[in-house]
User: What shape does this take?
Amino acid sequence: MKTWNAKPGEVDQKWYVVDAEGQTLGRIATRIATVLRGKHRPEFTPHVDTGDFVVVINSEKLRLSGNKMSEKVYYRHSRFFGSMKETTAQEMIEKKPTDLIRIAVEGMLPKNRLARKQLKKLKAYAGAEHPHDAQKPVKMELN
Assistant: This one.
């Protein structure tokens, strides 16, 4: 018996919609990262992009457990001296809630070129509307 590996042209990619309203950030991010990598499929191959597209709506209505909304701090730095900026999770939800999901999912993907390609298949939106109706996305149930 030979081992079968998926080829990039043979993979049929689907579209999923995730409603983030009332969901916990870490739990929703692990499920999204699994679908982006393609680990939910039987034909998963680690070196081929077998994942699906994920559209996240209502990302401004996410929950964080405990006091993380005010205590969790995100850092960014431009590599110039004195340029480190700190932002709490509450400030991020008010300014750009889609970055909160993108950062959480990015941390759960491997650090390589394939993961950067897979992260581009994540589409996050603050409200309930999204421009991907033509792809006929299926609602993904989160247990």
